[in-house]
Every structure is written in C-alpha cells, then in structure tokens.
Specification:
Chain lengths: ~400, ~120
C-alpha cells in the first residue's frame, strides 16, 4: 500500500497536480482499496452463513437464485432496497438513524490495520492491537444507541443486556490479546505475524487463544451468547423497530464482524500468511491468510448452530468468575515462564525471525504449563458443576416435599 | 509512509467508513415507497399496544459491572506498554507487572466476595 501511494503520488505530481492534492487522492485510493475487501466479502458471507446454517440443520438453504443460490444476497438486497422505511414517531430520530451507520462503520474500520500479506496492508500502525480494541468498542455504543433511540422497552432491555455482556467480555479478550503482544514484543499486527516464523502463538499459548476465541464469540453476540437477539425473550432485541436497509445494516455488520474476528485470530495466533511458499508470491500469502481465517470463521458458525443460548446470569458468572481470573492467571504464568526461559537462555528475546529450533524448548515448556492449567481448570469446572447440580436437585426435592405436604 | 501519513490514512478511513453503510440507505431512500400513517409509525414493541413511556428511570443492572470493567480497562492501558517492552526487561520487569496485576485481581476478588458479580 505504501508503494502504491507513493507511486500514485509521484505520477500525479509529474502530471502537474498539486502535491497536497496528489497525497490526498492516493490516500483515498488506498482507503477505497482496503475497504473494498470487507465490503465485497460481506456479500459472500451472508450466503455462506445461510448455507452453512442450513446444512447443519439438515436443510438445503438458498438454491434458487443463481448457481447454488449464490445470487440470493443480491435478490435480498433488491428486496430490502424497495422496502418502506418506518421510523416510529416516538423514536429519537437522529440517534435512530446514526446507530446502523456506526454499527457497520465500526467493523469496517478494523480492516484499516489488517495486513493481507507482508507488504500489502492499509496501514501498519505501531499500536494496531490497541486500535482494534478501541474500534471494537464502537459496536457496543451503536447497539446502546439503537436500543435507547427506538423508545421500545424490549429494545432497551436487550441493549442493557448487550452492553453488560460486551463490556464484560472485553476484559478477558484484551487480557488474551496481551499474550501475542507480549510474545512478539510489539502491537503492530505485521510484527506479530512475523514473530511467528518459528512457532505459531496458538502453540506457545493455547489458553490465550481459547479465551480470545470464546470472548470474541461473545463480542459478536453469537450463540451461546446471543442474548442480543433473544427472540423468545425479547421479541428481537435492540433492532425490533428497524426496517428495510437500516435493519439490514445491523446484520451485515454482524456477519462481517464474525469474519473479521476469524481473520484476526488467524493473524494473532495462527501465523497469518505463514505457510508453504508464502514468500513466493503475495497471492499465496493472501490465500493462506484467507484459508486460515475462513476455517476459524466456519468453526464459529458451527458453534453458533450447535449450542443453545445461556441465561444472562450464567453468562455473567462464566465471564467474571471463570474467564477473567483464568485470563489473568494465564497472563501471569505466561510472563513468568517467558522471563525465566529468557534468563536461562532457552528462549530468544526477539521472536521476530527466530527459527523453529530456537523456539522449540520454550514451546515444550509453555505447552506443559498450559496442559497443567487446563487439567486443573477442568477439575475445578467438574467440581463446581457437580455442586451446582446437587444444589438445584436438593432445591427441587425440597419443593416436591413442600407440594406433597400441602 | 511516515507516522503522520499513517494517521491521515486512519482518519480518512474513519471519515469514509460511515459512507459505505449510508450509501445503500440513501439508495433505498430514493426507491422505497413512502406511505406513512399514524398506526404504521407507532411503536411496534411486541405487537401489543405499548403502555407508558420507555424513557423513564430504569434500574441499570450492569452498573457494578461497568465500574469493575472501568478498573480493568484502565489497567489494560498500562499493561500494553509493559507487554511490548517485556522482552527487554529482566526478572524485575515481571515482578513489577505481577504486583500491579495482583493489586487489581485483589479488587476483583473483593467484589466477588461482596456478591457484586451476581446478576440480579
């Protein structure tokens, strides 16, 4: 992108254009190119989402419009375009109209820092990881705005739950994000990927990946955390009053967000574009990233379509009493092990460009620590689960005895 | 690309991002039918006539979560630079970071013991 901008800039300056203008236009072209990727993918994603959901539920899914139903999304878009847009008179007009824009924009903005290949990215910010966290919070804001502006009790209740959910799961998400940042010693996403030449971070810190995976599933509001659109409890959640294209924008944002998280996880934990022959051509590097991201994305769809929804108090308890302490413990153990290994000279201080052999001893130690933690955690979960079941059984027995006594 | 240019890119991106979702909405605005009436633009809610105003005082259930989140969010801001510089530090770097995290974890367990983490 850098080369493209400077090249375009030079061309325009030679043609006699003003330097400031040339810079602006080349930046604009860069922005349009980078944002084009998510905008094109989202059209395909809607089809993928419906097809996968259909297959998991033993249905066929869209198959009428175009080959394999590929043109279904375009048909849907035409339909949405011709729908009457109803703004309730009681709603707060300004916030009501802004909310879908913010919702979609917050996801598209993440793509500014996502590197597609080692040399093709919008911008390689030094604080890329922090930028992602900051931008992702805008989504929460848009849902709160939509819920409040609708002037609808269910929408507001849904928005309340969502804010509590998203705000809570951001804590383990960011703690897990600290693991790749610490290992790479940089917040730039390009550096984080380059630090994985020796070993993918998912091997060095599998627990951080699991925590990141679970909390990003919650951040996108997908099952088992789909309280945002708890149809059976809240009618439809924060978007009840929306219709037409504005309603569609919320959904496009959600589909895109899930895929964005898949790509992000591929970058942070699965070595991004690293794969056989990736250095041969940027296209191969791009393909590796796409394949890895899509596989992670498909597993989230799988999860979404198999697990039932949890109750809000269960979700909150799981986050604050399990995931947050776990993510803190994981960070402490990771940093301690890393420091001791570095002091002993068993791990390189700079992972960028480190070879497989250099990272191997550290990998084995890290894997053992993570395994020990997992076994211990599963033990805790088993114990707590048994206690909870016994309590509720005792409660039910007591209620039965009371009923028999009457 | 220098630092200023990088942020100019992000700034331009931020300006352009809301335009993408706005475009289909504007196109729809050109084509869609407009036949509003009083009943149609009344609040739908759950299909039954809505009772009372929504903008009244609600008990915000996530108030305590918000406070705890704030503590951790501020903590993150300090932890990110620590994580970035971590590889260059010796064992003292770990102890300093550990003490910092420990103090805040302490607060989490205090909130836990006070039952502040239960959704009511």
């Amino acid at each position: 992108m850098d080369e493209l901008c400077t090249g375009l800039c030079k061309l325009m300056a030679e043609a006699g254009a003003d330097v400031g203008l040339a810079q602006f236009v080349s930046l604009l072209v860069g922005v349009l190119l980078v944002s084009g990727v998510p905008l094109v993918t989202v059209i395909l994603l809607i089809w993928v989402e419906r097809k996968v959901a259909a297959r998991i539920q033993d249905r066929i899914g869209p198959n009428r419009v175009g080959p394999l139903g590929l043109l279904q999304t375009f048909a849907d878009m035409l339909k949405l375009l011709s729908k009457e847009d109803i703004t309730p008179t009681a709603a707060d007009r300004i916030l009501y109209n802004i909310a879908p824009l913010v919702s979609f924009a917050s996801v598209v903005l993440i793509w500014a820092v996502i590197p597609f290949t080692p040399f093709h990215y919008g911008v390689d910010l030094e604080i890329g990881a922090l930028y992602f966290v900051a931008i992702a919070s805008f989504g929460t804001l848009s849902i709160m705005a939509a819920g409040w502006a609708s002037n609808n009790k269910y929408a507001l209740l849904g928005a309340f739950r969502v804010v509590a959910l998203l705000v809570s799961y951001e804590v383990p998400l960011v703690f897990a994000l600290l693991a790749p940042v610490m290992l790479a010693g940089s917040m730039s996403l390009v550096d984080i990927v380059n630090a994985q030449t020796g070993m993918w971070f998912v091997v060095l810190s599998p627990l951080a990946f699991v925590i990141f995976y679970i909390s990003s599933q919650a951040e996108t509001g997908r099952a088992p955390f789909d309280l945002i659109e708890a149809e059976s409890e809240l009618v439809a959640g924060f978007n009840i009053e929306y219709s037409g294209m504005k309603f569609g924008m919320f959904f496009a944002a959600e589909f895109l967000h899930v895929f964005t998280n898949g790509i992000l996880m591929a970058l942070l934990f699965f070595g991004g574009w690293m794969g056989p022959l990736f250095y041969e051509s940027p296209l191969i590097a791009f393909a590796w990233l796409g394949v890895k991201g899509t596989i992670i994305y498909l597993t989230t769809l799988w999860l979404r379509n198999t697990v039932p929804r949890l109750r809000i108090d269960q979700i909150m308890a799981f986050n604050w009493k399990f995931l947050v302490p776990l993510s803190i413990a994981n960070l402490i153990f990771l940093s301690l092990a890393l420091k001791i290994l570095q002091e002993l000279g068993m791990a390189p201080r700079d992972l960028i460009g480190a070879s497989f052999a250099e990272v191997l001893p550290a990998t084995i130690v890290m894997l053992l620590i993570n395994l020990a933690m997992t076994v211990y955690l599963l033990g805790i979960m088993r114990k707590r689960g048994r206690e909870a079941r016994r309590e509720s059984q005792a409660g039910a027995a007591l209620a039965r005895a009371g009923a028999a006594g009457d | 690309m220098n630092v200023l240019n990088e942020w100019a890119f992000v700034g331009l991106f931020a300006l352009m991002a809301p335009i993408f979702p706005a475009l289909p909405i504007v196109i729809a605005w050109l084509f869609r039918p407009r036949k509003p009436n009083v009943l149609k633009s009344s609040t739908y809610e759950c299909g039954v006539e809505t009772i009372g105003d929504t903008w009244v005082q609600f008990r915000v259930q996530y108030y305590i979560y918000g406070l705890i989140f704030l503590v951790f969010d501020v903590e993150m801001v300090f932890l990110f630079p620590w994580a970035v510089a971590y590889n260059g530090m010796n064992l003292f770097g770990f102890i300093a970071g550990f003490l910092f995290i420990f103090l805040l974890t302490d607060a989490l367990f205090y909130a836990w013991k006070k039952n502040a983490l239960d959704w009511k």
